[in-house]
From TrEMBL:
Name this protein carries in UniProt: Phosphatidylserine decarboxylase proenzyme
Modification comment: Is synthesized initially as an inactive proenzyme. Formation of the active enzyme involves a self-maturation process in which the active site pyruvoyl group is generated from an internal serine residue via an autocatalytic post-translational modification. Two non-identical subunits are generated from the proenzyme in this reaction, and the pyruvate is formed at the N-terminus of the alpha chain, which is derived from the carboxyl end of the proenzyme.
The species this protein was found in: Sphingomonas morindae
An annotated Gene Ontology molecular function: phosphatidylserine decarboxylase activity
Keyword entries, A-Z: Cell membrane, Decarboxylase, Lipid biosynthesis, Lipid metabolism, Lyase, Membrane, Phospholipid biosynthesis, Phospholipid metabolism, Pyruvate, Transmembrane, Transmembrane helix, Zymogen
Segments crossing the lipid bilayer: 38-62
Site (Cleavage (non-hydrolytic)): 202-203
Intracellular or extracellular location(s): Cell membrane
Gene: psd
Amino acid sequence: MTSLDKPELGTSTVRWRFPAVHPEGYKFAAISAGLTLLLFWLLPDLFGWLGVGVTLWVLAFFRDPVRTTPLRAGAIVAPADGLVTMIATMPPPRELIGEGALSAEPVVRVSIFMSVFDVHINRTPIGGTIARVVYISGKFLNADLDKASEENERQHILVEGRDGLRIGFTQIAGLVARRIVPFVKPGDIVAGGQRIGLIRFGSRVDVYLPAGTSPQVLLGQRTLAGETILAIAGRDERIEGVAQ
């Protein structure tokens, strides 16, 4: 590559654009819009305008923005938008343990809580092959509770990179969420940061980092799915920060 081929530092060709709405949201927006028209017809206009607000919120909930995923060796990116609410050391779920999967030894788990205002499209932490997808029905406790990882409706996904790196993560339905919608199945090949599913209306995603890997995010930090680097595989370097 010659110097003429390299982009100049500080030169920007990126323009903001309004996020698209994922097709999964169209039916909910249509239902909300229909109810809004009914409210305008049957009740005072105030209720109709409240319906307009709800319809706009539904469209915003299913927004699907474009994300730029860093291409860095060993990079493990956030699978979800939201707040890092828990960083703990524990064994992976039994559904992700076994031959050709994860070890039963405790590893670092990073939990990202998605409020109803966050983008709910989830993305794969690394590129590779989807090795497992295990859905488990369950309760709908507050997804911010630690026991939600064992009692709530959830879906475990294992992805194996070309270099053999395996990352397991779990989509957990929350208090308001009522369905996990998968976009992938075992055997699918995905790029790092590719969309793999969504959880409707508030939830959590747990990511199990490889042994000997420390998170590069902090409690209280916000992440962007497909963009924020959670960790670098094999890097055991603790970071510190301050809330301000």
